[in-house]
Amino acid sequence: MRKYLFSGAVLGSILGAIGVVKATISGPRDWRLLLMWVSWACSLAIAIGTVADDEKRRELTE
């Protein structure tokens, strides 16, 4: 679990959620807000997948 929390990609994605939350609170509720959340979820999924892939590759080389 620690490898996910301290990964730069995952941290960047989590910090990116701050902007999405601010836009949700203060911005208009339209289709662009939904796209922001979908985009953020995709970036988080890609970051988690990258960490998992790196870990699998590390295990295979050892």
Automatic annotation (TrEMBL):
Keywords attached to this entry: Membrane, Transmembrane, Transmembrane helix
TM spans (from-to): 33-52
Listed name of the protein: Uncharacterized protein
Organism per entry: Agromyces tardus
